[in-house]
Amino acid sequence: GTLMGSRACVKMAAAAWGGGFLNALLHTANTFSIPLCQGNTVDQFFCEIPQILKLSCAESYLREIGLLVVSACLFFGCFVFIVVSYVQIFTAVLRIPSEQGRHKAFSMCLPHLVVVSLFVSTGTFAYLKPPSLSSPALDLVVAVLYSVVP
Question: Would residue 108 count as lying in a domain?
Answer without folding.
Answer: yes
